[in-house]
What does this fold into?
Amino acid sequence: MDDTPLLIVDGANVVGSRPDGWWRDRAGAAARLRDSLAPVAAGGLPARLAAPVEVVLVVEGAARDVPGTDGVRVVSAAGSGDDAVVELVAADPQRRRLVVTADRELRGRVTALGAEVYGPRWLREAPANS
It folds into this structure.
């Protein structure tokens, strides 16, 4: 069993949770989110999630070509981003899995598989991302 928590971020949902013009450049918005997640891998989220953390950003659609970076693995969904998140959660049932999304249907699907779910605000308001 891997003791490193797996943090899976629903990229489209988290990017879409802030009306900051992301729709004009979906790939750029996904890349900015990816970059904001990089410190979480080594530093965790103080008072919320101890380091080290495996961070996975799931992207889809116009953001599909955003590459991974040190600390953040990017999974480009071939179809539905939600389905890709569920597959990641299901693939490692013995591990602590945390999913960041506000999508109600996705929340239900991953909690049924034993994952913890947090909304985009939980991630944005963490001290490491302030």
About this structure: Residues 47 and 126 are 8 Å apart (CA to CA). The mean pLDDT is 90. Strands lie at 6-10, 54-59, 72-76, 97-100, 116-118.
